[in-house]
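Re: that backbone. Tokens:
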């Protein structure tokens, strides 16, 4: 009986330890992702604050705004005959009072270092204020509305291009890895350096060929003018206008991405465990999915995420060429009009998009690659 009691107590002790392990794993994963979120938030804050300093040129833009306010008040006063009858000293006092009231209303009465942190707080909370010169399609000067109207077209163009690029390059690279040394494989290797040219460069030639010469596709915009009345015709018009900008993005990236991923597949397909799988008589499709594609996915996701991040900011010129009503074209217009609130607002939106992309990459890593250790305790085991 004493031995049985000892055994029972051991059994109870072991059973009490087992339920604690999943909880420990969950807390470790939660801690890891919380640390990643904090790191990304700090990165976004630093990036947005630097953008505020650059957009305001260290406070020089606010000095320009003050000078413009003084000029406007002076012109209004000089145009009033009653004001001209007031003594000169009193006129100067009234002008200074009106200037101070306007400065306080716009927050220009505080020093720029303090004002820059106020701008940072408002930017991070998406309280982007009012645009100085630009308006939304509805006539509003709210920067949030101005950007939101342009965000949907940009997301449509980018998501469509990235999905086609990812799956197209993935299957094309697998196809080439099975035909190493073929004419098509050599052609892709020869065409890979052409990806050094940006998407807008190919967009110019695509417009010249298919819009100007052949006249089979529109020059630009997102939909025909006036827009079609019914939903189905509107969707067809949007798809037709998507062809050339998507083709430009694919032309600038498809060959180099396919070449890189095809190289990954060739490296993994020559490993010993692949040869062992072939010796066991497994089908080629099963070998590709389980022993070639699965271990290659982390490297593929990394390279694709890096190209995605660069494309977010690199398509400003592309949207301008195709007259695409997205954020890229909005940034170009805001820079030309010196509209600082809109410029800072677009930088904030891009910063959030890039942070979400990086965080999503961490989650995808944990899903597709079981070798990734989430936390220091797991790494020590």
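Recovered sequence:
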């Amino acid at each position: 009986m004493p031995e049985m009691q000892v055994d029972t107590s051991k059994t109870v002790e072991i059973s009490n330890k087992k339920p604690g392990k999943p909880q420990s794993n969950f807390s470790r994963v939660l801690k890891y992702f919380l640390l990643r979120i904090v790191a990304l938030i700090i990165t976004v804050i630093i990036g947005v604050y630097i953008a505020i300093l650059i957009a305001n040129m260290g406070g020089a833009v606010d000095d320009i705004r003050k000078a413009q306010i003084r000029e406007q008040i002076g012109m209004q006063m000089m145009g009033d005959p009653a004001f001209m009858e007031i003594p000169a000293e009193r006129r100067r006092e009234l002008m200074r009072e009106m200037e101070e009231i306007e400065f306080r209303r716009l927050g220009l009465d505080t020093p720029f270092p303090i004002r820059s942190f106020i701008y940072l707080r408002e930017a991070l909370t998406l309280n982007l204020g009012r645009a100085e010169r630009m308006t939304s399609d509805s006539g509003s000067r709210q920067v949030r509305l101005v950007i939101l109207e342009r965000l949907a077209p940009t997301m449509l163009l980018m998501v469509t291009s990235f999905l086609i690029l990812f799956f197209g390059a993935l299957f094309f690279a697998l196809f080439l890895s099975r035909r190493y040394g073929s004419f098509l494989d050599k052609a892709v290797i020869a065409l890979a350096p052409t990806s050094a040219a940006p998407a807008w460069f190919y967009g110019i030639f695509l417009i010249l060929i298919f819009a100007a010469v052949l006249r089979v596709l529109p020059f630009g915009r997102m939909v025909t003018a006036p827009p079609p009345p019914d939903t189905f015709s509107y969707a067809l018009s949007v798809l037709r206008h998507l062809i050339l900008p998507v083709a430009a993005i694919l032309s600038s990236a498809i060959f180099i991405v396919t070449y890189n991923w095809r190289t990954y597949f060739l490296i993994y397909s020559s490993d010993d465990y692949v040869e062992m799988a072939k010796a066991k008589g497994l089908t080629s499709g099963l070998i590709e999915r389980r022993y070639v594609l699965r271990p290659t996915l982390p490297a593929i996701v990394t390279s694709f995420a890096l190209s995605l991040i660069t494309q977010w900011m690199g398509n400003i010129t592309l949207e301008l060429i195709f007259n695409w009503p997205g954020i890229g074209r909005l940034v170009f217009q805001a820079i030309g009009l010196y509209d600082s609130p809109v410029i800072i607002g677009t930088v904030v939106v891009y910063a959030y998009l890039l942070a979400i992309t990086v965080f999503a990459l961490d989650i995808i890593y944990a899903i597709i690659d079981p070798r990734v250790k989430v936390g220091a305790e797991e790494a020590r085991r």
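Confidence is low (pLDDT under 50) at residues 1-23, 375-381. The CA atoms of residues 28 and 376 lie 8 Å apart.
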